[in-house]
UniProtKB/TrEMBL annotation:
Keywords from the UniProt entry: Amino-acid biosynthesis, Branched-chain amino acid biosynthesis, Cytoplasm, Leucine biosynthesis, Magnesium, Manganese, Metal-binding, NAD, Oxidoreductase
Name of the protein: 3-isopropylmalate dehydrogenase
Domain of life: Bacteria
Gene it is expressed from: leuB
Cofactor binding annotation: Binds 1 Mg(2+) or Mn(2+) ion per subunit.
Subunit structure of this chain's protein: Homodimer.
Role played: Catalyzes the oxidation of 3-carboxy-2-hydroxy-4-methylpentanoate (3-isopropylmalate) to 3-carboxy-4-methyl-2-oxopentanoate. The product decarboxylates to 4-methyl-2 oxopentanoate.
InterPro entries (UniProt xref): ICDH/IPMDH, IsoCit/isopropylmalate_DH_CS, IsoPropMal-DH-like_dom, LeuB_actb
Binding site for Mg(2+): 219, 243, 247
Species per Swiss-Prot/TrEMBL record: Streptomyces luteosporeus
Length: 355
């Protein structure tokens, strides 16, 4: 565990800067006083694109690579054509830094309001493939803009890429008490990609005899997310299915304002990147309504990734306590951040740290 952290920060667009500010406050409160945190902020997103036409220049990509981790708010703005920042900035980072494990935990914390009936036990983690599938940009359009337009978006699935993420998911399942792994795909229709996934899933599974396995088509998985979420422990799935499923997972565990993610480069060749699952939420940007909890929980994932397990747990405990104490009264983004800082500070080893 390093006693210094070089953190790159990309606040981004919309509510991104608002929630990142709270994440940084909590990070500062959680870290032991002898850990030197240096942050470098990157001006990337809609403002930069309007000013210069740039999304993510190579020099900045190289500079980002020199950090221990990246904290990102969100990118995307209605004033920028759809896809320019999402592909040119966010996906460029995930691909360039080989973030093939997109880790998205889903836990229903006690006291959290869920739209589901009863008191379901929800505690699973989605291991979403992060560098392949329909996200690679392999496609195009012919006769664009005419009534005869044809557009393709090819899903790219390599044995190498599928095996490494499936193996990561087995490792995570093996390390959890229930040791259960569910593959979610659509191999009744997407037979080429689907059978590659299933064959690799079964072959790697022979190395993990303690892990119970299961397969679900993605449409059926959405049913069980709502009717029987307790059946899931670890889920492995492709890039697009994982994107959609994790917004649903957020909705059933208290809302998108609580959902965290880590884009992990397991080998550590490149910095891993932590970000809330949600986007830039232009509809509430600037209003102080954004819940920063998803970013704060992403900071906990960041801390754990860098080896600060006790500090990660303190941040998660602070969130659990805050969520349990919610009584429906409206708090601003800043007030939620302050409350979380207070809870993290109060549980510092040796008692509260003086301000
Ligand atoms: N990782 C990312 O940077 C990321 C992720 C998703 C979407 N996007 C981009 O963000 C933009 C908006 O996308 P969208 O509207 O589809 O999804 P979104 O996640 O930004 O918003 C969906 C809904 O959730 C609400 N919401 C989101 N985060 C919230 C929070 N922290 N607290 C309270 N409410 C919250 C929004 O107000 C909105 O009603 C688009 O440009 C999209 O491409 C970026
Ligand atoms: C903005 C977009 C590229 C991104 C994705 O699809 O991965 C987002 O929806 C997410 O979930 O992080
Ligand atoms: Mg998404």
């Amino acid at each position: 565990m390093s006693r210094s952290i070089r953190l790159a920060v990309i606040p981004g667009d919309g509510i991104g800067p608002e929630v990142v500010a709270q994440g940084l406050k909590v990070l500062g409160a959680a870290l032991p006083s002898d850990v030197r945190l240096t942050t470098t902020e990157y001006d990337l997103g809609a403002r930069r694109w309007h000013a210069t036409g740039e999304t993510l220049p190579d020099a900045e990509l190289a500079s980002l690579a020199g950090h221990d981790a990246i904290l990102l708010g969100a990118v995307g703005d209605p004033s920028v054509p759809s896809g320019v920042l999402e592909r040119g900035l966010l996906l460029k980072l995930r691909f360039a830094f080989d973030h093939y494990v997109n880790l998205r935990p889903a836990r229903l914390l006690p006291g959290t309001a869920t739209p589901l009936a009863g008191d379901p036990r929800i505690d699973f983690v989605v291991v979403r493939e992060g560098t392949e599938g329909p996200y690679t940009g392999n496609g195009g359009s012919l006769r664009t803009g005419t009534p005869a337009e044809v557009a393709t978006e090819v899903s790219v699935n390599t044995a190498y890429g599928v095996e490494r993420v499936v193996r990561d998911a087995y490792e995570r399942a093996q390390a959890r008490p229930r040791k259960k792994l569910t593959l979610v795909h659509k191999n009744n229709v997407l037979v080429h990609a689907g059978h590659l996934w299933k064959n690799v899933f079964d072959a790697v599974g022979r190395e993990y005899p303690e892990v119970t396995t299961d397969y679900l088509h993605v449409d059926a998985a959405t049913i069980f997310f709502v009717t029987q979420p307790e059946r899931f422990d670890v889920i492995v799935t492709d890039n697009l299915f994982g994107d959609i499923l994790t917004d649903l997972a957020a909705a059933v565990t208290g809302g998108i304002g609580l959902a965290a993610s880590g884009n992990i480069n397991p080998a550590g060749t490149y910095p891993s990147m932590f970000e809330p699952v949600h986007g830039s939420a232009p509809d509430i940007a600037g209003s102080g309504k954004a819940d920063p909890t998803a970013t704060v929980l992403s900071v906990a994932l960041l801390l754990r990734h860098l080896g600060y397990e006790a500090q990660a747990a303190r941040v998660e405990d602070a969130v659990a306590a805050d969520v349990a104490a919610r009584d429906g009264s409206v708090r601003s983004t800043d007030e939620v951040g302050d409350a979380l800082v207070a809870r993290v500070t109060a549980t510092a080893p040796g008692g509260p740290v003086p301000a």
